[in-house]
Amino acid sequence: MVLPLVDGYGRVATDLRVSLTDRCNLRCTYCMPAEGLDWLPTEQVLTDDEIVRLITIAVQRLGVTEVRFTGGEPLVRRGLVDIVARTHALGVETSITSNGLGLAKVAPALAAAGLDRVNVSLDTVRADTFLELTRRDRLHDVVAGLAAAAEAGLGPVKVNAVLMRGINDDHAPELLRWCLERGYELRFIEQMPLDAQHRWSRDGMITADEIFERLAAEFTLTPAHEPRGSAPAELFLVDGGAATVGVIASVTRPFCGDCDRVRLTADGQVRTCLFARQESDLRAALRAGADDDELAQRWATAMRGKAAGHGIDDPSFLQPQRPMSAIGG
Ligand code: SAM
Ligand code: SF4
Description:
Elements: E1 5-6, E2 12-13, E3 15-19, H1 48-62, E4 66-70, H2 80-88, E5 93-98, H3 103-112, E6 117-121, H4 127-134, H5 139-151, E7 158-162, H6 172-182, E8 185-189, H7 208-216, E9 221-223, E10 234-238, E11 244-248, E12 261-264, E13 269-271, E14 280-281, H8 282-287, H9 292-304, H10 324-327
Parallel strand pairs: 3-4, 3-12, 4-5, 5-6, 6-7, 7-8, 8-11
Antiparallel strand pairs: 1-2, 9-10, 10-11, 12-13, 13-14
Helix pairs in contact: 1-2, 1-9, 2-3, 3-5
Bound molecules: S-adenosylmethionine (SAM) and iron/sulfur cluster (SF4).
S-adenosylmethionine binds next to strand 5, strand 7 and helix 10.
């Protein structure tokens, strides 16, 4: 019996984001501090079998149709290819969001395991700015990872970019041109208050309107007129052609009313929203011997508590305790 993941506002979650680890090999300034962030203790992180069991429950009993693996950096999880293969065998769409480091090596194995698509995060194609933003000199690895993903058929390859004022906010047209030349679909994401250092400010962030202005200075952008539905990106046709660029205005034009997502953290907590301040612990129940019915019930119950919206503009807004890297973006 399928028990859909319905919340108190009638939204149904079918898109599951699974964080495979809170660890990462980059240190993007809008996400992690340079050092000093504690990792989850190993014994708290779900095993591969535990992850696959929870995904199976989500698919077979809770109506999930799409699974995206994220983190931290999902490629640093040793069992990734096997987890993807076992998830693919459930008959759902599978994808990953990755920083691209190591993707050049593993892309063929991921494609063979049944992975459908990848999103790779890349905020600039200038090596010095990449180093400044991620605190690691690894631009060449990301570029190679993107090429390998396209070559392995993990497309359409999407690129996620965050613009930071005074660092890469003037690189938007250059990044778009670079992606167009290679057939990658670029999406700009507004910076959200999810950094471990709690430095985000509403005034400091680059808004979707600013992103649009910077792109429109060099490209003709026309709305793609696709119904947005639960897809967060507003899409624009570039120079009247078939290629599109997306802007994800999570902060200034929230799409919470159409949200169809639910998240599972690497330590087995259900989060109904990136910005949730409460989590529901499935790991404890799972390790205490709960059967699939009970776990599905707990998950469905957790879903009912999903808030109407993220409330970033509400004066009482409080940033969640976990940073983006530990939630799973
Ligand atoms: N490490 C992988 C990566 O970077 O793609 C997956 C995890 S990362 C948390 C997922 C996405 O969240 C990335 O596209 C990243 O740019 C984005 N992200 C991280 N912190 C963010 C923030 N404060 N605001 C908006 N997007 C953020
Ligand atoms: Fe790592 Fe992704 Fe966070 Fe960058 S955005 S620090 S790559 S988890």
